[in-house]
Each structure stands twice: as structure tokens, then as C-alpha cells.
Amino acid sequence: MNEIEKFNDYRSKMNEKILASDNKVIKRIFNLDTNAFSDGALTSKTKELIGLTCSMVLRCDDCVKYHLGKCFEQGLSDDEINEAFSIATLIGGTIVIPHLRRATEFWELLKESNV
Amino acid sequence: MNEIEKFNDYRSKMNEKILASDNKVIKRIFNLDTNAFSDGALTSKTKELIGLTCSMVLRCDDCVKYHLGKCFEQGLSDDEINEAFSIATLIGGTIVIPHLRRATEFWELLKESNV
Amino acid sequence: MNEIEKFNDYRSKMNEKILASDNKVIKRIFNLDTNAFSDGALTSKTKELIGLTCSMVLRCDDCVKYHLGKCFEQGLSDDEINEAFSIATLIGGTIVIPHLRRATEFWELLKESNV
Amino acid sequence: MNEIEKFNDYRSKMNEKILASDNKVIKRIFNLDTNAFSDGALTSKTKELIGLTCSMVLRCDDCVKYHLGKCFEQGLSDDEINEAFSIATLIGGTIVIPHLRRATEFWELLKESNV
Amino acid sequence: MNEIEKFNDYRSKMNEKILASDNKVIKRIFNLDTNAFSDGALTSKTKELIGLTCSMVLRCDDCVKYHLGKCFEQGLSDDEINEAFSIATLIGGTIVIPHLRRATEFWELLKESNV
Amino acid sequence: MNEIEKFNDYRSKMNEKILASDNKVIKRIFNLDTNAFSDGALTSKTKELIGLTCSMVLRCDDCVKYHLGKCFEQGLSDDEINEAFSIATLIGGTIVIPHLRRATEFWELLKESNV
């Protein structure tokens, strides 16, 4: 399994366990997560860019990876991703840079996985 | 002076004082802030939505107000703003809600100011 | 109107406006907020203490005030509140202290309002 | 060594080194940490739930693991832990979810280790 | 009373109330705060610069004001303060700028108060 | 390769890739990072202590490692580093302790690497 598969695999496995606990509040938060990013007044492409940049300024590597995967599915270009990266780094400061490194690495993996 | 004018006035006055200190690093960060949000691979409208939501999840009222002003200039609709608000609240959690209240109030002021 | 009434008044007024926007995601988050703190495996008293301390370490004054109000309704004693304050200050660090000051002030207001 | 032992082992080893530096401020913070969570006006069970949820909203995996270990010693049930998880995720937002996954995994390890 | 006196006054009044609660953990944290910033291997001047910049990146206005007052007592120059401001803004990102504005204003008040 | 070399290697490799994307905003932020920490009104030694402590309270392990490396080059003593650690832990709270453990470990590696 490559890094992307490992990431998705762990994510799915643990989501299943979390939802199996049958806690209503958690279940609804997971549901909302699906609804909030679908097309509406804003396109899901714009929403994924929002998800990506918010994850970067909050410095959550796994959230960044998840939204990078979604951005990749949405067909976002390198230039679009780099501009999103630049705004997040400017707003969040140089403390974001280690996450920018890992985000850049994961974005490359996504592109390679699709050759 | 209404709330919006007071906000802009204080912002301008203090920015001037900060830049008068002639600190190179700070001056360049202020310059970057202007460049980063102009049209590029992403539209400045999308970038302002990113600025707005990142400011919400980082819970900075003044930053939220600034980007709401820019979003208003970009002609964003209520529905677009509300969807941006909803994603920021979902990602950032209920701790964002007090900022959502003040953001909602400021958005209404912006709309009224323009009647 | 005293400080407590002003706080509750603004909160209610803006919640109404936010819910009037009819954004599904936001509405559900507001609903969850009510459900999550009701009695369950944990008592609502314990849950309010969790809400209070999480709000302190995340340094949100309005959230602290809200949960202090709820803690007061639950009949929590000064000693219980002070122990909760002390843990939040220890975990969150001295950066929490300005919020501890305002929390202490609001707790006193709540007690006076009830004489 | 399993995951729990590795975690505890590294923690003990490094705590020893930190305390060996003989820095008075750090030593006292470590002492406070022990005192703050013992029984008082609030039970240590309630305090561990506070420690757990504050660690989750501040998104510190090691702190979450430490308090999960303490919650396990206190005999907290799955339902109690899940309600604590749900409040932390609601307050802290979906950015907490990756930590919720790792917390869920560690909680399972704790239960298995005790069979 | 001017802004600086109001700030110091509220701070003293509430610290007194907090310490009156006689909570051991809180009392010790307050004590540590005094010890940690006195001369040692690092000068108290360097320590106040650390306190100032940590307060800025954590975006706590009151903490910034407190450490600015201490930096003023230590005789720090405008250039030294501006360099500290610039590093904090670079590390913490543009989200720090609203706090930089208020810090700049308070620093000017401190200088005027001393004419 | 030891831990320090691995850390520096990954850092360099990814910085190169990030800068190869030729995004003007990101390039300038990277440039600023070099300028901001050079000698000025404050010595670069003081600036590295600021960089170290800000990284600790913001809880970024990679940033802590980077600034520890710089502090080591500046010839900072154990006592100076421990006082910086103690202030960061006091300001940022016990949530900083897991990062303090890893910082202590990396500081030891730096000292061993230089024997």
C-alpha cells in the first residue's frame, strides 16, 4: 500500500469504529461534514479550497491531506493549489511552513498516483 | 461615524503608524497581504472567501470584518456568505459561534450602509 | 439592563438572525449544541464543566460566560468552579489568566444577580 | 512492547531528563499537574474528563492518550468516553476528528490490554 | 484614569479576587509567573521579549499589554520592540496584525505616559 | 543518517520543491524568514530564543527543532535553553509538555552530534 492508500485506509477503518459507537452527536457531525461541502451557492471546488486552507491555518496534517485528495478529484491545477497554499501561509504565518512541506509532498503523491 | 467607518478609520490610522516605524519585515508582510489576494489562478472573490473562513476558524473578529468588507465589495450574496460561515463553523466548532454572531451583525451593517 | 442581561440579549438576538438565514448546516450545529449537553451517560453538570473548561483553554470569553451561566443554573459551588478554573489555567497556561479574570468577574455577577 | 508501553516508557524517560535539568519553574509545573487532578470539590474522575476534553479541543494526541489512560484507571465506561468525545468534537469542530480517530484507537488498546 | 491605569487597575483588582479564592493550584501558577521572568541564565529583558512575542503569536491583547509595560520598565527601545513585533507577525501570520495595531497603540501610550 | 540529518534533509528537499513552484508570495515569506532573524537592534541569539519559544507555545515540533538547531549554532547553554523552555511551558500550559519532551530529546541529540 502506498502512502495515500494507507491514509485512506486508516481513515475509513477508524471512521467505521467511531460511527459504530452509535453516539448521536458524533454521527450528525459526520453527516454534516458530507453535506457542507456539496455544491450550493458556492461550488464544491470553492468549498474544498476553503476546507484546505482552513485546515492549513489550523495546522492539521490529516485534514490537509483529506482536502488535498478532494481538491485533486475536483481537478484543481498546481497554480490554484499553490495560491491557496500561499494565502494560508501568509494568514497563518511561518508556523504553517512544516505543514506546507508535507502538503506539497502529498500533492505530488496524488499527481503521481494518477499517471 | 458608524461602526464600519470607525473600524476602517482605526485600521488605517494604526497601519500608518506601524508602517512609519520603517521595519522592513513588517512592511513586506503588509505588501504581501495586498498581492496575495489579487486575481491570479484563483479569482480574488475565491481568495476573499478563503480569507474570511480562515479568519473565522482562527477566531479573529477584526480579520473577519476586514474580509467581510472585501467580500461585500466583490458582490458576494447572502447565500454565499452563509455557506462560507457554515463551513467555518463546522470546521472550527461551536467555539466559532460568538464570532459568527459578530460577523452576521457586521454583514448586516455592510448591507444597510449601501442602501 | 445589567451585564448578564446584555450578554443574553445580544446572544438571543443574533442567534435568531443566524437561524433566520435558514442555512441547514448551521441550524443543525445549533441543534446539536442543545442535545450534546443534556443528561446522558454523563450528567449535564459534568458536561457543563467540560464546556466551561474547553471554552477557557480555547480562550473564548463569550463561550466561558455562556457555560458559567449554565453552571450557575446547575448549582455548582464556588469551590467546584475554582477547581475547574485551576485545571483550565494549568492546561492552557498563563495565557488563560486574562480570561480567568473576566470569568471570575462574571461568576460574581451571576451570584449577585441571584441574591 | 506494545503501543501503550512505548508511550508510557518514552513519557517516563523524558520526564526524568526534563526534571534532571533542575529548572525550578518546570519542576513546579510538573508538581502542580499531579495536585490539580486529585480528588477535591470535583472528583478526580470529573477532572480526568476535563483533562481529556481540553486535550482534544487543543488537539494534543499525547495529552489525549495520557488522560485516556487515567480515565481507564478511573473505570470510565465506553458511553461516558464517547459523550466526552462528542462534546469535544462539537466544541472544537471537525478539525478534531483526526485526533478522535487516534483517541478511539488508543481507547481500544487500553481495553484490550486489560482483558 | 487613562487607558494604562484602567488596565492595571482591573488587572490588580481581579488578581486579588482570584487569589482570595484560595485555590492552591492557581496561587502557585501566579507565583511561578513572577519567578519565571526574573534574571537568571537569561536576563529579565530577554525574558520579557519572549513573554511579549509569545503573547502576540497566541493573540492575547491583555498579555501583550502586560509584557509591553514590563518591556517599557526594562527600557527597551522602539527598534527593539519593532523587531520583536516583526518576528511575532512573521511567525504568527497576518492574523496577528490586529493585535499588532493595538500593541502599537499601547506602546505609544506607555511612552506618552512617561514624558 | 541520524535524526538531525534526516530532519535537515527533508526540510531542504521540500523547501526546494516549494520554491520551485515559483509562487511569489511564498518565495517572499521564505526570504523574510531569513532576514527577520539576523542581527539588528536585537541580537540573532535573542531572536532565536524568541523563535524557539513562539514555536513551543504554538506547539510546532518541526519549528522547535529548527530553532533549537539555530540556538545550538549560537552557542546557547543548557541553562539558557531550560529557562526558555520553562517560560514557554508556563505561558502555553501543560499542553506544551509533550513538545517539551521532544525538544529536550532533540537538544540532547544536537549536543551529542557535536562531541
Concise synopsis of the structure shown:
The first copy, chain A, is mainly alpha-helical.
How would you describe this protein?
6 copies of one chain form a homohexamer. With 115 residues, chain A is an all-alpha fold. In chain A, 78% of the residues lie in helices and 0% in strands. The two termini of chain A are 17 Å apart.
By DSSP (H or I, 4+ residues per run), the number of helices of chain A equals: 6
Helix content of chain A: over 70%
- Distance from N terminus to C terminus of chain A (CA atoms, Å) equals 17 Å
How is the biggest beta sheet of chain A arranged?
none
What is the subunit organization of this protein?
A: homohexamer
Please tell me what the overall shape of chain A is: globular
Mean pLDDT of chain A: 96
Backbone CA Rg of chain A: 15 Å
Strand tally of chain A? 0
- Largest interface, C-beta closer than 8 angstroms, per-chain residues: A-B, 31 and 31 residues
Unreliable sequence segments of chain A: none
Going by helix content, strand content and strand pairing, the class of chain A is mainly alpha
Strand content of chain A: under 5%
Order of helices and strands of chain A: HHHHHH
